[in-house]
Amino acid sequence: MQKTRNKYKNIHQWTPFQLLLFYYIAAIALSTILLSLPVAHKPGIDIPFIDILFIAVSAISVTGLSTISIADSLSTTGIIILALIMQLGAVGIMATGTMLWIMLGKRIGFRERNMIMTDQNQTHFDGMVRLIKNIVYVLLVIEAVFFIIIGLYFMKYYSSAGEALLHGFFFVISSISNGGFDITGQSLIPFQSDYFVQFMCMVLIIIGAIGYPVIIEVKEYLFHKRKIKNQFHFSLFTKLTTTTFFCLILVGAVGIFLFDIHGFFKDVSWHESFFYALFQSVTTRSGGLATMDLNLLSDTNHLFMSALMFIGASPSSAGGGIRTTTFALVLIFLFTFIRGGRSVKIFHREIYEVDLNKAVTVTFFAIIVVFSSIIILTLLEPVSLDAVIFEVTSAFGTVGLSLGITDELSAVSKIILMILMFIGRVGILTFLMIFKRKKDPAKFNYPKERIIIG
Amino acid sequence: MQKTRNKYKNIHQWTPFQLLLFYYIAAIALSTILLSLPVAHKPGIDIPFIDILFIAVSAISVTGLSTISIADSLSTTGIIILALIMQLGAVGIMATGTMLWIMLGKRIGFRERNMIMTDQNQTHFDGMVRLIKNIVYVLLVIEAVFFIIIGLYFMKYYSSAGEALLHGFFFVISSISNGGFDITGQSLIPFQSDYFVQFMCMVLIIIGAIGYPVIIEVKEYLFHKRKIKNQFHFSLFTKLTTTTFFCLILVGAVGIFLFDIHGFFKDVSWHESFFYALFQSVTTRSGGLATMDLNLLSDTNHLFMSALMFIGASPSSAGGGIRTTTFALVLIFLFTFIRGGRSVKIFHREIYEVDLNKAVTVTFFAIIVVFSSIIILTLLEPVSLDAVIFEVTSAFGTVGLSLGITDELSAVSKIILMILMFIGRVGILTFLMIFKRKKDPAKFNYPKERIIIG
Ligand SMILES: [K+]
Ligand SMILES: [K+]
């Protein structure tokens, strides 16, 4: 760890953390200025500064929580600005996430020759530019395809072609960036019987949340020459994160259905239940759009979905939370240790101890941050405990689902949510780099002594 | 780990876990039979079997949760039986806890010559008997002293000497065993203005919850010959657990006060506030008696106290939860790792990695168990979320505080609470021994591969 850090300290002027912090502060400042422009608001609408700042942080962190109604407050120009901010947020996090990984000297798993940084002698700045170009290119191609389909399909919902295209444009960007904002005024509830729209939305959310390195590997696999396809190996990272990702969606959908089988789903047909449960499960990965009023679900489901949102999406994706890999490593660690094993193995690979330590650190730190935020919000807000837990985990997971309390919150609570969105977005590990000691810790050792546990 | 287990497998007929399991099942069966005797009930009172079983589990695990009112249901004989069950529970857990520690071949820190097992050639059974004798002796001496003081003092509260002595007897055993049952019908609320009774109760709870090895070390320190007193060293275990224990009490009292400074404590005098906050903090370590109706505190405080109860008492004490040492090691681990250190140090000693792994495993497993229980109880019970969280952590921490929902619970929820009290009592690590593989895990290694975390 120490060695790696010293290495990139020599070859860089700024640390990855400073890079990220600079990018975020600049992006948030720019977004706040853009959203403050009168042309971004509907005529006669005046939005308080804290709410503009909140939307800017929410959009840059692609969370989607909002203290005001976007549909009622922003003009068409404002809506387009908001879409572009989400796009910027998604590209930013995918780029910085993937870049940090490469800068730390690890290979993502796809072949070196196809890697963004093929030449080790090139500067990191060039690599960064190429990476961003690559991400923007991939995103734009996917977005263009979906925009054409959805835009045309939306003609049946909206009176003018312009309106249909605007809604289609915003829908595609809000879904793939996992931004989760809506301009319908009620999320995807107007499409709660339209399984095609829901399906497209789920595909886009998954593309945004599954992690950029996974997309690159899948892309390489698909465009591989047929004859060497058998030699192609997905990286351990891709296998682990993808398995965890889809397991979470499956467990989430089954859980959401079972926890309200005698409640919300009692009088709902099987295919409606299927889509309600599946969509709400997918959206907790970090999407943030919803096809129903979540207040209709039970407290049990609110807690369950809070846990899913806390876990969040894959690393280097548009999603937040502790991340799927962290969750998976903690579970594997737990299972291994309980069974008496000493080294942690998965997919015929052994996990580095330093990665296990990281996963444990991230999870505990996240629990402390989330629990403290819940304590403070219960102190400040006269709302139910499950609504607070839901709101806090939603912000930390940069999911953006809410039981409808966001607009009632006090300024302090809004600031806490902004901090949570920021931490959830940059990731606990990157966030913790602030506290790292500059110098190597003392090299001397104390005698060891045993401790009674539990 | 493997080596140690094989070692004591050779010298023992049964594993520590089988010993514990046998002890608990036998103790619970015996307690259930004794409490089922008609002579234990008030005339005309018929207690359902599940409630007798619940009280038996609650008393053996010295939790104190009860689905019925002890004062209204048990006769004087029943009350004395209940007190003896709590005493049995407290001695049992201190003995098995300390014994496991010794059997695993670790020194507790007090000098070998004063240890329970001075001769390495003696059988473990002899050591166990001597240990139990020692614990009973220490407990009886402390109990006798406090019984005389409290019994005499209670004369001013009760009309007859017999009643005062019975209440004093039950009070002392319920406090020192951390049993937490009451025969007043409303915990220690009748003594909410009597600071002497509260002080005595806190001292007894602390003696019961601070861990038997600590008591032994303190005893040895006090009766040490003066001239070698300077050479006496407390063990790392004692330093760590005692520091954590009193820090938790301090943080707990300050937190409880601050989180209701505009609520419950608004019109309460400073000395009443001091005792209310301090007593309620001490009791969350695992005591379970309360000097106030906890429903008067805010949701924030309910959550805060739930966290305190989840942490629980010291290992090898009458208390439950993840234990103070586990909590301390996780915090130290987190702090060390965040600061970039590689080995975890405290009090000029280095912590074994296997102990850190244990602490992490215990904490994560406890979170999963507690969270799952909360999910199930919210599904079954039509009560508020904070009451469920409070009840579940109280059972797991074998604390016994409640927001008053215990008697309304369904049979399934009662069984879940019994399982939680059992796990909380024997400790997660001992409980997990069931899942340990019999054979050594495979010795071969897979190649290592890095994973993106967070
Ligand atoms: K989102
Ligand atoms: K108790």
From TrEMBL, chains A, B:
Domain of life: Bacteria
Transmembrane region(s): 20-40, 52-71, 77-104, 135-155, 195-215, 236-259, 318-338, 359-380, 415-435
Topology with respect to the bilayer: Multi-pass membrane protein
Gene name in the database record: ktrD
Name of the protein in question: Ktr system potassium uptake protein D
Key words of the record: Cell membrane, Ion transport, Membrane, Transmembrane, Transmembrane helix, Transport
Primary localization: membrane
Keyword Ion transport attributed: yes
Keyword Ribonucleoprotein recorded: no
Places the protein is found: Cell membrane
InterPro entries found in the cross-reference section: Cat_transpt
Pfam families: TrkH
UniProt-listed PANTHER family: KTR SYSTEM POTASSIUM UPTAKE PROTEIN D, TRK SYSTEM POTASSIUM UPTAKE PROTEIN TRKG-RELATED
